[in-house]
Amino acid sequence: MVDGIADSDLGFPASSQKSTINNFMTLSVAIVSHNEEANMGRTLEGVKWADEIVVVDSGSSDRTCEIAREYGAQVVPEPWRGYVAQKQYAIDLCTKDWVLLLDADEEVSPGLAREIQSAIADPQAASGYKIPRKNLFLGRWMRHGGFYPDAKLRLFRRGRGFVTGHDPHDRCELKAEVPQQTPQFSNAMVHYTYPNLTLYLNHMNRYSSLGAELAVAKGHRSFRFADIVVRPLLTFIYNYFFRRGFLDGREGLLLHVYHANYVSWKYAKAWELARHPPQSDQAGQ
Fold it and tell me: Does some domain include residue 179?
């Protein structure tokens, strides 16, 4: 058992279940990757029953692509376009009736696999389905603080869903002309987000820079005490106390402290970016 997740939840469906999909509708799995050697095998093992796996890789230097090919995935090299554009590109390459979009560090449990198979085999199926996620931080499932169920629209009929949002916060939506009902599965995927603090802080540094660009585009250009101090403090209080993040122990405390720091970094970087636009930096270099 891994911190509240039963071992059975981390297993995989029997290979015989593949015929369930083939008798009805077909499924493509779309994944984008970059140096995901530590995660790729686990992720692909959980969806090896799918009819097609498309991995769009942005120049991995480890065994990511080799592992993907071992599982029969179609590996497509593609320079990084950004979170939204790269995932949309992966979806566009899929050829089956349904598309399941996964991150390279997400794992489909056997219970979720059965729900997916049942849904796409149903003639009355909706156009898309939301999937809850069990987010792991430092190996512990974050059950509180707004991190569960964290449901995402990830399964949809091909041609009816698309990727939108602003980097790095992409999301899937159904096209406007499609009925918008999106039932939620009861079984969750497991999201192996941040196994150590170094990786988490590196990601938050990069995400805060991307968030700063978006904040500047929305008009946040001044140095404001409310954005850099008050907003992060309120974020921490809301998530840690009102949303009961404190119930997730030491890991929960670290997650919410550093998430609040991310908010502060974003607005500080927005102020800096507004004062020194990238064009000036490039000219100086």
Answer: yes
Q: Are 111 and 38 in contact (CB under 8 A)?
A: no
Check: CB of residue 29 under 8 Å from CB of residue 163: no
Residue with tokens 């990757």: 33
Beta-carbon contacts of 226 under 8 Å, excluding residues fewer than 6 positions away, are none
| 157 falls within a domain | yes
Q: Which of 249, 242, 243, 235 is nearest to 146 (CA)?
A: 243
pTM: 0.86
Q: Check whether residue 178 and residue 44 sit in a common domain.
A: yes
Chain centroid offset of residue 284 CA = 36
What letter would DSSP give residue 224? -
The tokens for 180 are 């918008």
pLDDT digits over 115-166, tens only? 999 999 999 999 999 999 999 999 999 999 999 999 999 999 999 999 999 9
How far apart, in whole angstroms, are the C-alpha atoms of residue 170 and residue 149? 17
Domain that holds residue 83: 7-194
